[in-house]
Design a protein that fits this description.
Blueprint lengths: L1 H13 L5 H15 L6 H9 L4
Helix pairs in contact: 1-2
InterPro entries: Glcn_transporter (IPR003474)
Protein name: Transporter, gluconate:H+ symporter (GntP) family
GO cellular component, one term: membrane
């Protein structure tokens, strides 16, 4: 799943021309759901692990 996340974010940035920050957040949500996380836990996990507080 980790390789998928890396490839997915590269495709979103290069091929789809998506903003880098939006692509990273979107990829985090997709990978979190793919790993079986609850949808409510994903934003909390992103906020907890980021430098933005």
């Amino acid at each position: 799943m980790y390789y998928f996340g890396n490839c997915f974010v590269i495709v979103l940035i290069i091929k789809v021309k998506m903003n880098t920050f939006i692509a990273l957040i979107f990829t985090s949500v997709v990978v979190g759901l793919g790993l079986g996380m609850n949808f409510v836990e994903i934003p909390l996990s992103i906020e907890k692990e980021s430098a933005v507080r």
